[in-house]
Amino acid sequence: KSADHVRIVEVGPRDGLQNEKQSIPVATKIELVERLAQTGLKTIEAGSFVSPKWVPQMANSSEILEHILRTTIKSPHPITYQFLLPNVKGLDNFLSIWQNQSSQQDAYPTPPPSPATDEGPALNTSSSDPNAMPSAASGAEAMGKERGASSSATGAGIELSIFTAATESFAQKNTNCSIAESLERFQPIMTRAKELDLNVRAYISVALGCPYEGPNVDPHKVADLAVSLLEMGADEISVGDTTGMGTAPKTAELLKTLSAAGIPNNELALHFHDTYGQALVNSVVGLEHGIRTFDAAVGGLGGCPYSPGATGNVATEDLVHCFHSLGAKTGVDIEKLSEIGEWISNKLGRANESRAGKATLAQ
Ligand code: HMG
Ligand code: MG
């Protein structure tokens, strides 16, 4: 796979839905995951094993995991499904389903990967900055089963994601513990995940602004935390602009600080919420810095329950349209994706927040 490939982590089924007040039927969530699996996306965050008292909407994530593990979801290539969890209790709940299924794993053959689909135009190398698209971070090499995601009987890769924050106030509000305590909670999760050959992604929230401590979060704090998480065994850090307070200069400064701390681009992902309409421009800053993994939510769904007023992630359709225009390859079919954005927005009775999605459908 070439260096101009961008890996998009579709977080709509988790980040996109977790904040919806109405109870969403599990069948709708499963249909969302199944439809997304047919667009060319290769990584989908499908749910979370958090306290149902804190985030009731995610309470039926175990049924989604069961479905993924039991059913061979139609997709053009193997897909990695991620599940978010904050503590050992969440891990135990996840494992009670995952281990039960994987004990039957040998009974089924793993389907071979299908041939690659059209992945969009070649990367535009006539950029004014010849170093704008460095080859260091090939998202393709870090993808799906190729990056060691533990595979299930149905051929689906499964990964875990854990989350902490760059500020003490947000860590307390979101997980009822300090940052240091969150790292202590992760240690046994990491140990167990490594024993079970499960990849672990680690989110750092409020990296570019905190709802409780304001817009100026120290980038060195983010870098120190990222180093600690990688040393602990995290396979990837997703740097979260939870509040959407990030701007292009702040994003560039944060990325420089992360690089200066020795963190390679291929161990980083960027996770932008679009509250101030800056998510796309910040994503391009990330692309130019050499990041090749980006989180997004179809239809721009979502918001964090502990970040008041925060809106959804950058819309996947908008990110795909933008990256293709720059010559980056995502492998994603924007038409199929746009239909899903419209469908799920209608199901939830909310506006479709993707400009590119609406425009694609209007063509
Ligand atoms: P706590 O109340 O301090 O937990 O919550 P506790 O350990 O004291 O346990 C209290 C009760 O919860 C007990 O039950 C536990 O068993 C149960 P009881 O004895 O009262 O019946 N419990 C659980 N149940 C199910 N699953 C679990 C679990 N843990 C405890 N995992 C806790 C601490 C961390 C659990 C809680 O604060 C929590 O679940 N927080 C999650 C909040 C959340 O999901 N936020 C959104 C996701 S993060 C995000 O969106 C940001 C991101 O997108 C990146 C970005 O944008 O920045 C990732
Ligand atoms: Mg988020």
TrEMBL record:
> What Pfam families is this protein classified in?
HMGL-like
> What GO biological process, any one, is recorded here?
ketone body biosynthetic process
Any single GO molecular-function term of the entry would be: hydroxymethylglutaryl-CoA lyase activity
EC assignment: 4.1.3.4
UniProt xrefs under InterPro entries = Aldolase_TIM, HMGL, PYR_CT
Write down the chemical reaction(s) this protein catalyses. (3S)-3-hydroxy-3-methylglutaryl-CoA = acetoacetate + acetyl-CoA
Spell out the PROSITE patterns in the cross-references.
Answer: PYR_CT (PS50991)
List, alphabetically, the SUPFAM superfamilies matched: Aldolase
Q: Where does the source fall among the domains of life?
A: Eukaryota
EC primary class: lyase
Identify the metabolic or biological route this protein is part of. Metabolic intermediate metabolism; (S)-3-hydroxy-3-methylglutaryl-CoA degradation; acetoacetate from (S)-3-hydroxy-3-methylglutaryl-CoA: step 1/1
Q: Where is this region: Disordered?
A: 102-151
Sorted keywords for this record are: Lyase, Metal-binding, Pyruvate, Transferase
Pyruvate carboxyltransferase domain location, by residue? 6-338
Q: Which family does it belong to?
A: Belongs to the HMG-CoA lyase family.
Q: Which PANTHER family match?
A: HYDROXYMETHYLGLUTARYL-COA LYASE
Name the UniProt record assigns to this protein: hydroxymethylglutaryl-CoA lyase
Q: Tell me the organism's taxonomic lineage.
A: Eukaryota, Fungi, Dikarya, Ascomycota, Pezizomycotina
